[in-house]
Design brief:
Beta-ketoacyl-ACP reductase; about 240 residues; seven-stranded parallel β-sheet; Rossmann fold; NAD(P)-bd_dom_sf
């Protein structure tokens, strides 16, 4: 058990919800963000936050501090998809994905890292995707945003390491969430056929990996990009 405090973006559903639940179960004090709704999640308090908007992030972090005190750990999980061939995408559609998935994480880090620097201890975890390494037809905007998280996390590992702050990325494969509900059955089978374990993963499995990365035991792991996809994309 621990008394550490955690700020989880995108905690209202899917992987983010599973992470918030798992960390709460392990004794962390958790505040999650949701853009439009205030979900009810036992043991987790929510603040409204649009990660694309720096002012919204600033307000949400201030509210989280009122609940938690200083913020020890940040898990950046807020993300969206807007799939389709690049030549059919509008600029607004592309920008929305980049602003949410990549710039949103930058906005959150800027507001929360000062607490960690002051305490000489902290954990940053970014939820990317195996698509960041693999690429995928119709997902140029999503792939670009998720690839950017790897460079962001590694650069922060260098910048913040002397302050005792780790910065890591998890790269989920095909995980059973609402985000994959739009996949055709053909594409779903195709991805599973390229997965060594021949199945999809669960949000709870991703949450368990994140829980390890934010723990004391993971204190010598930083700048790492860890796939969690049942073996999909091995060798990349």
């Amino acid at each position: 058990m621990t008394s550490r405090s955690v700020f989880v973006t995108g905690a209202s559903r899917g992987i983010g919800e599973a992470i918030a639940k798992e960390l709460n179960k392990r004794g962390y004090r958790v505040v999650g963000t949701a853009r439009t709704t205030r979900p009810e999640l036992e043991g987790v308090e929510f603040v409204a936050c649009d990660v694309r908007d720096p002012e919204s992030v600033r307000t949400a972090v201030e509210q989280a501090r009122e609940i938690l005190g200083e913020i020890d750990i940040v898990v950046n999980c807020a993300g969206i998809m807007n799939d389709g061939p690049l030549l059919t995408q509008t600029q607004e559609g592309v920008q929305s994905v980049l602003d949410t998935n990549l710039n949103g994480s930058i906005n959150v880090v800027r507001e929360t890292v000062p607490d960690m620097m002051a305490n000489k201890w902290g954990r940053l975890v970014f939820v990317s995707s195996i698509v960041a390494l693999w690429g995928s037809p119709g997902q140029t905007n999503y792939s670009a945003s998720k690839s950017g998280l790897i460079g962001l996390a590694r650069s922060l590992a260098w910048e913040l390491g002397r302050a005792g702050i780790t910065s890591n990325v998890v790269l989920p494969g095909l995980i059973e969430t609402d985000m994959i509900s739009g996949l055709t059955e053909r594409r779903r089978k195709e991805i599973i056929s390229q997965t060594a374990l021949r199945r999809t993963g669960t949000p709870e499995e991703v949450a368990a990996l994140v829980a390890f990365l934010v723990s004391e035991e993971a204190g010598f792991i930083t700048g790492a990009s860890i796939p969690i996809g049942g073996g999909v994309g091995m060798g990349l």
